[in-house]
Structure formats: C-alpha cells, structure tokens
C-alpha cells in the first residue's frame, strides 16, 4: 500500500495558509487541479487574500471575475493594463461588480484599461462604497463616471485621472464638491483649463492637485 505523502496529511486550513503565499495565478490553477483537497485549499487561500493584482497577467473577463468572486476578504484590486494586453471589458467589470467583496474594496486600479467605458466603470463603482483610492488613468471615461464616483464613494481619498481627456471642468467640480474627504487628484494630461484648478481649490483648499 502506497504511503500517504506528508503534505497530504496537512489540515485543509494549514494547506490554505501555504497556498495563500503563491502569487502566480497559473501556479494556483495548477495546484487546484492536483486533487479535490487542494482545490478546496486554493479556494480557501483566495478567500483570505487582501490584495489581488492582475498587472502583468493576460486575463479575460471570466477568469478575472471568477478569482475576484472567491476573494471574500479582498481590499485592494489591481487590474491595470500590462504589456501582455489585458482583455477586460465592460462585461468583465459588471461581473466583478457582483462579487461580495466589492463593497469592502478600499483600492481599485483600472489604469490604462482602454477596453472599458463609462458603462462598466459606473457598474463597478456603484457597488464600491468603501473606496478610498481609485486609479482610472489612461482610460476613456467621461463625466458620467465622475458623477457615479461622486455619488457612490464618500470616503474617496485620492483619484488618478492621468490623461483622461474626456473629463471636463464640470465633472471635476461635481467630484470635488461631493467627495469631501478627497485629498489628492492627479489630472496630468487632461484638457481642463487652468482656471478650473483655482475653482477646485476654492471648494477644497487643502486639495493636492498633481502635477
């Protein structure tokens, strides 16, 4: 009779504690396929994760949403575009918005995600009421997204709008007026006039406008 491997004797909780240290999603997928116990261990490991970063990974809507859905304790989500060409779309953001952890997220980065529009951003942000840090730089969002952020994220502390050339002075005024805890805003590369920044500082004198 074949002797049981030492690692197979580990309790499922301890196995999950080890697997949570694996950062490669490819490795986690392979671990999940070892056996039923390891598959459960991977699920428990994801449930304990506080941060998920897909930067540098070639992800699609379904695979990204599936991982986020299992990360019940998630606080920080980074799905920035990478050189590998992340394929997240509005449909993916909608699926992510349905995950239970979204309402507890404090940080979201959608940097450089050119495949998303206001439709997907609004669906995600409307569910992220605990958000404190948001990076939507390099996207094609408009004032519609800024309005949703202003209405849904009262705890927002910082936002990156780097090169968001479709946002206007009106959208920024609404954002700063409603997000009273906002301390920092990056508007490099936007097309708003300089006078707009004076108006923002009139609303919130302590606001740090970058650059």
UniProtKB/TrEMBL annotation:
Boundaries of every F-box/LRR-repeat protein 15-like leucin rich repeat domain copy: 95-178
| Pfam families per record | DUF7885, F-box-like
Q: Which residues form a coiled coil?
A: none
What are the boundaries of the signal sequence?
Answer: none
**What region holds the F-box domain?**
7-42
- Note the InterPro entries from the entry: F-box-like_dom_sf, F-box_dom, FBXL15_LRR, Leu-rich_rpt_Cys-con_subtyp, LRR_dom_sf
PANTHER family reported in the protein's UniProt record: PARTNER OF PAIRED, ISOFORM B, PARTNER OF PAIRED, ISOFORM B-RELATED
Q: What is this protein called?
A: F-box/RNI-like superfamily protein isoform 1
Q: Which organism is it from?
A: Theobroma cacao (Cacao)
